[in-house]
Structure prediction request, 227 residues.
Amino acid sequence: GAVVSQHPSRVICKSGTSVKIECRSLDFQATTMFWYRQFPKKSLMLMATSNEGSKATYEQGVEKDKFLINHASLTLSTLTVTSAHPEDSSFYICSARAPGSGYTFGSGTRLTVV
Amino acid sequence: GEDVEQSLFLSVREGDSSVINCTYTDSSSTYLYWYKQEPGAGLQLLTYIFSNMDMKQDQRLTVLLNKKDKHLSLRIADTQTGDSAIYFCAESPNAGNNRKLIWGLGTSLAVNP
Prediction:
């Protein structure tokens, strides 16, 4: 079945630094990938839709200069959290939809900013 | 607007059946999904149903869709402790690959020995 690989699974960084999270579709091409943030009460918040070869579409309230998304190829999208602060600590999940299949998710990245 | 609602908690005994319910508001929904999330992990697609279907069964899982009432349910037969997780209901407005999903808050299923 369709597999989405997300790395790293956990990262701890210092406040003020940047962190890059990668999301790869391993056995299919994904023109569109989605980035979510999951809050402690479980709800998933869609942050942005990543489009291959063009700018990402951000949801209302999400700072595009803080959460940089690059979708340079059909199998890779990256999310960079710039100048991270403790309030950015969260669980970030990417997803993509393979043709003829449901939305497949990465295993998530637990970001802790100290 | 678009909305998906689920009860937040469900507790069952091992071996019993679990039924997780979900309601949605978008009548144009084409696909409806059930995802499972184990602690600290990503989301795993359990099953999905197309809007022109009433029921879909896959081993221990049975999905029922009442399109008139916009109600979706997931039944897990012979629930095991390994089924303890959060179950998310999600809807997709159409079949396009670039359409975002609308999510429920998730139902925490606790299976007691």
In short: Residues 30 and 94 of chain B are 5 Å apart (CA to CA).
